[in-house]
């Protein structure tokens, strides 16, 4: 068992609070991904869990035991660093067995475990090499191997793939997913990469400014973001936000007049809104359709298009100057400067109030109650 | 017009000649000293100076009969290695904490340590002499080890600190997570990784100690006197005997020169403070 519970955790450096009270529960065998903008404290939280930084206040429990003040080595966690942090003076096998030999395990045992890890990571033929003589991907695998041999309760990864090239990143991503299944381990993973987060995670934690914005499965975050920040952060290309104001609102629908012209009636619970309130409409590129100029009141002018083969990301400008992205078919032939219009898929649009909170679907609050 | 290639080789030629010129200028006094040590006293004084003469060993034989070279050499050896060892034992933990547990005051502490080297040693001669006298450390090897350790410590801390700074913190943190105690972290990870920088620190300290003269002349007389004191004893009231002085100087310099020559690669790396990799 390895349940990790974080209670009201705070951390400051020289008086500036970086982690501002985090509560989090991570269950056994879960693959949890931390995402958030740069500098929001993801690495700091990971280092607090690992014990490399001292907490300012709050508690960390592992399997019901308070490990807040336990030395890093005694926590039974393993961390894989972005820079790999291999011991440059030791061979691959020494790198992997260092922890075991410090713990005084016997030779045969160490050798068995190193062999096992090398087999899982396909490093068998490299065991005698020094880290210098390895490629980036191989170094990363050694770093993971160093974690595996210890059979830790929790694996911590801090942007482990960000130093690899794109192709290797995809390959290592698959290997990590396989590793998670094979070891059946609890893993916490920090990344900037949306795809890594969406594909690897059982649970994604979105951070912003030292706080947790939302916790949920990747699809939950994608479909039901709690607020405008999460909506904008999850999904590539980003969700577009259009300013507007409420014309009419009740518990079953909200009519919005967008600043760029058109009016839409969205099937959302607007009982908290009144006419005239400022709101923001959020719509993802995949929920917009480009049509001929006369087909819709949502008039736009085409900007540049990015042809990716299967899809085309077409940038368009509204009449009030907002730039949005539309996902169009691969053979989309629109030209720069051409007039067109957009048809949003209203069932998938989100509406955010002036504080950035997402409006619930009708009946959602009743169901929850 | 010169082609690019010609400009380059011209530049190499000019810079190369300048480097050789500088090196020869620096080397010349040593060369002349060794040469003089094989002359007779008369030849040594001759004007114009003689480049060709029949070499003699009489100066060396004289030194062998007048003073016990190995007694002084042994003192030099013990004092140099003793204070280098003591210095490293102090510098490594100090540099470790400064390099990896930096506070806002670390940089100024380092500079302050180094600034003590700007003080003229003679300024503290009297207090140190009196302290040594009451502690019974005058003319003891322990006394010199203590002084040398203290005067070289700022440079040693600085050099070890520079060597440690090149090592990513992550590696030590990984060791900590792997279960290493602080001692294991230092001895099994930090020291092996920074062995190049440590070696040049040790070398520099040995050289500085070996060549130190001010304190050895003032704090020792015979029992603990190192080679520098032996050399000084040859510039005696009876007048200057250039050939003998050259011979004893040659004997005093030889061990450290040979040692430094054998280790020059390390030295260059260490003294360039990480500029050459
Ligand atoms: N040792 C430290 N002393 C002072 N401030 C620190 C220290 N470590 C981190 N910080 C600050 O804490 C904040 C969060 O840093 P952290 O490294 O956790 O961000 P992050 O979310 O991992 O960012 P990134 O995605 O860029 O890696 C930053 O503003 C950083 O400057
Ligand atoms: Mg980080």
Automatic annotation (TrEMBL), chain A:
InterPro entries per the UniProt record, alphabetical: AAA+_ATPase, ABC_transporter-like_ATP-bd, ABC_transporter-like_CS, ABC_transpr_MalK-like, ABC_transpr_MalK/UgpC-like, Mo/tungstate-bd_C_term_dom, NA-bd_OB-fold, P-loop_NTPase
One of the record's GO cellular component terms: ATP-binding cassette (ABC) transporter complex, substrate-binding subunit-containing
This protein's UniProt keywords: ATP-binding, Nucleotide-binding, Sugar transport, Transport
GO molecular function: ABC-type maltose transporter activity; ATP binding; ATP hydrolysis activity
Pfam families: ABC_tran (PF00005), TOBE_2 (PF08402)
Domain ABC transporter: 4-234
Residue ranges of coiled coil: none
Protein name: ATP-binding protein of mannitol ABC transporter
Native organism taxonomy: Bacteria, Pseudomonadati, Pseudomonadota, Gammaproteobacteria, Pseudomonadales
TrEMBL record, chain B:
Keywords per UniProt: Cell membrane, Membrane, Transmembrane, Transmembrane helix, Transport
Domain (ABC transmembrane type-1): residue spans on this chain: 73-263
InterPro entries for this protein: BP-dep_ABC_trans_perm, MetI-like, MetI-like_sf
Domain of life: Bacteria
Subcellular localization(s) per the UniProt record: Cell membrane
GO biological process: transmembrane transport
Coiled coil stretches, renumbered: none
Membrane topology: Multi-pass membrane protein
Membrane-spanning parts: 12-35, 72-98, 110-132, 144-164, 239-262
CC terms in the record's Gene Ontology section: plasma membrane
Entries under Gene3D superfamilies matching the protein: MetI-like
Family to which this protein belongs: Belongs to the binding-protein-dependent transport system permease family. MalFG subfamily.
Alphabetized PANTHER family for the sequence: INNER MEMBRANE ABC TRANSPORTER PERMEASE PROTEIN YCJP (PTHR32243:SF18), MALTOSE TRANSPORT SYSTEM PERMEASE-RELATED (PTHR32243)
Stated name of the protein: Mannitol ABC transporter permease protein
Taxonomic lineage from the root: Bacteria, Pseudomonadati, Pseudomonadota, Gammaproteobacteria, Pseudomonadales
């Amino acid at each position: 068992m390895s349940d990790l519970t974080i209670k009201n955790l705070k951390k400051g450096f020289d008086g500036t609070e970086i982690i501002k009270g985090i509560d989090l529960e991570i269950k056994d065998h879960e693959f949890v991904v931390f995402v958030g903008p740069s500098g929001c404290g993801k690495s700091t939280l990971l280092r607090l869990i690992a014990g490399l930084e001292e907490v300012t206040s709050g508690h960390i429990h592992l399997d019901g035991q308070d490990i807040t003040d336990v030395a890093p080595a005694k926590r039974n966690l393993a961390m894989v660093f972005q820079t790999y942090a291999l011991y440059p003076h030791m061979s691959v096998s020494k790198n992997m067995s260092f922890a075991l030999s410090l713990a005084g395990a016997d030779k045969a045992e160490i050798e068995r475990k190193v062999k096992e890890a090398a087999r899982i990571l396909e490093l068998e033929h490299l065991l005698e090499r020094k880290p210098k003589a390895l490629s980036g991907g191989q170094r990363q695998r050694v770093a993971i191997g160093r974690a595996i041999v210890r059979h830790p309760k929790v694996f911590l990864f801090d942007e482990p793939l960000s130093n690899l090239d794109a192709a290797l990143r995809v390959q290592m991503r698959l290997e990590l997913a396989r590793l998670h299944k094979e070891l059946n381990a609890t893993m916490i993973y920090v990344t900037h990469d949306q795809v890594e987060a969406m594909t690897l995670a059982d649970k994604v934690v979105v951070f912003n400014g030292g706080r947790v914005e939302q916790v949920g499965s990747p699809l939950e975050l994608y479909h039901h973001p709690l607020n405008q920040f999460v909506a904008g952060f999850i999904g590539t290309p980003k969700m577009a936000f259009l300013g507007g104001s409420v014309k009419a609102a009740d518990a079953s629908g909200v009519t919005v007049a967008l600043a760029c012209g058109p009016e839409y009636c969205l099937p959302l619970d607007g009982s908290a809104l009144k006419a005239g309130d400022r709101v923001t409409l959020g719509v993802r590129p995949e929920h917009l359709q480009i049509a001929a100029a006369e087909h819709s009141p949502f008039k736009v002018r085409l900007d540049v298009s990015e042809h990716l083969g299967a899809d085309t990301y077409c940038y368009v400008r509204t009449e009030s100057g907002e730039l949005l992205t539309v996902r169009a078919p691969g053979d989309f032939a629109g030209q720069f400067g051409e007039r067109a219009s957009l048809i949003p898929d209203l069932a998938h649009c989100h509406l955010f109030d002036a504080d950035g909170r997402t409006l619930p679907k009708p009946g959602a609050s009743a169901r929850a109650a | 017009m010169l082609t690019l290639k010609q400009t380059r080789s011209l530049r190499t030629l000019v810079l190369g000649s300048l480097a050789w010129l500088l090196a020869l200028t620096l080397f010349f006094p040593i060369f002349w000293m060794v040469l003089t040590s094989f002359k007779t006293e008369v030849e040594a004084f001759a004007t114009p100076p003689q480049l060709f003469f029949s070499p003699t060993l009489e100066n060396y034989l004289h030194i062998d009969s007048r003073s016990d070279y190995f007694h002084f050499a042994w003192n030099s050896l013990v004092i140099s290695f003793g204070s280098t060892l003591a210095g490293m034992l102090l510098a490594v933990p100090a540099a470790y904490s400064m390099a990896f547990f930096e506070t806002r005051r670390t940089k100024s502490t380092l500079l302050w340590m180094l600034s003590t080297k700007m003080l003229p040693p003679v300024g503290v001669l009297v207090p140190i002499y009196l302290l040594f006298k009451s502690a019974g450390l005058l003319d003891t090897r322990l006394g010199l080890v203590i002084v040398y350790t203290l005067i070289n410590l700022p440079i040693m801390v600085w050099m070890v600190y520079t060597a440690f700074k090149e090592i990513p913190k992550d590696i030590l943190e990984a060791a900590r997570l792997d279960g290493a105690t602080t001692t294991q972290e230092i001895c099994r990870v930090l020291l092996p990784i920074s062995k190049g920088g440590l070696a040049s620190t040790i070398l520099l300290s040995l050289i500085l100690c070996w060549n130190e003269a001010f304190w050895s002349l003032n704090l020792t007389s015979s029992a603990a006197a190192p080679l520098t004191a032996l050399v000084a004893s040859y510039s005696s009231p009876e007048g200057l005997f250039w050939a003998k002085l050259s011979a004893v100087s040659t004997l005093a310099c030889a061990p450290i020169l040979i040692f430094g020559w054998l280790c020059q690669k390390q030295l260059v790396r260490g003294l360039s403070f990480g500029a050459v990799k």
